[in-house]
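#dry-run=false #mode=assembly
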Amino acid sequence: DQQVKQNSPSLSVQEGRISILNCDYTNSMFDYFLWYKKYPAEGPTFLISISSIKDKNEDGRFTVFLNKSAKHLSLHIVPSQPGDSAVYFCAASATNFGNEKLTFGTGTRLTIIP
Amino acid sequence: DAGVTQSPTHLIKTRGQQVTLRCSPKSGHDTVSWYQQALGQGPQFIFQYYEEEERQRGNFPDRFSGHQFPNYSSELNVNALLLGDSALYLCASSSPGRANEKLFFGSGTQLSVL
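#status=ok
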């Protein structure tokens, strides 16, 4: 039972344009959501998060949007840069802080085309 | 400041053998979580250790066991290895009492079971 789903295994975006990565979840107990970025041969690194009491969180070029009624969140990267090419994982937690047990999606491989 | 360190980086075992993976948490972190990432999948939560005790456990069989030492480092043991145990094993550290500290991952141990 996949509680966190990333339905796009891969995405290619031109440098400078906006990248939009999507994630859906099914478990209503999730109340904290995170995005992690993973380069080859490295562990995932934390990118940005959002609590269920918010619908938007912004950090520089990265913005996460949360639609609780649709159980959907998205990560916007603008402008996209070549260094953004990586695998992006959406993750969810049933605690307030997101540093306890995380449930991950299967990831989306983002390729930024120069 | 060293991050999360894992050893070994790669390991090859045969079916039925036992394996021990090691993890040292990031400085200042007292909680260690272990995740299994199979090829093409997102990381799956195995268990979490805090104060030398297993605090939470995911849906993994008893063949998977762990230990946390007084210095907060941790070991993951897998007995009676199966071909399906081949995966990247990620260790993550955190400090649950510090809300702004997210899970910090190591680079992982790539386990191949032949």
